[in-house]
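B., you asked whether I could sanity-check this one before it goes into the benchmark set. Here's the sequence:
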Amino acid sequence: MGIVRWGTGSAGEWTIKFVPPQKHKINLLESKHLVPLPAMVFLGLKSDYWVWAIKGSKFDPEAEAFHVPLPNVYLHSYQPCGRICWGDNKPPLASPNTITKAWELFISSPFNGHLSDGKSRAQPSDVRVQIQKAVKRSSYPVKDLISTNQTIAKLVAAITDD
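And here's what the prediction gave me:
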């Protein structure tokens, strides 16, 4: 899908892209896997980006936010959670014109063991094990997701200072 929200706040210009549940080509452990992932909400503010999972297939700002079942994304200890660790990658400044490019850079990046724990109920120590198991499935098991105990709207408001 595409841009579902855009605005400016005291922190600057921000853009939100919604990605419905679908299969993505994931670069995991130096090999590519076609993996079903849940719906995701991708927020960009300046050169920082956040990503969360939601249940369902339509964007809902009041939806419960879950930790995205992927490595390289911070948990609660880095508030607000969901901030992406880009490694050596340099994402573009967030805007409606660049959000898709940033998303493609994120989802095609190599996912390593950095920040791979705490993202899966079935595989709490390393979500990559669960990702490899999901390859055989048609959809990601949403019962495996771990809640942030926040809604998308509250997380976005905390980041954008709205």
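One thing to flag: Residues 35 and 131 are 7 Å apart (CA to CA). Otherwise nothing jumped out at me.
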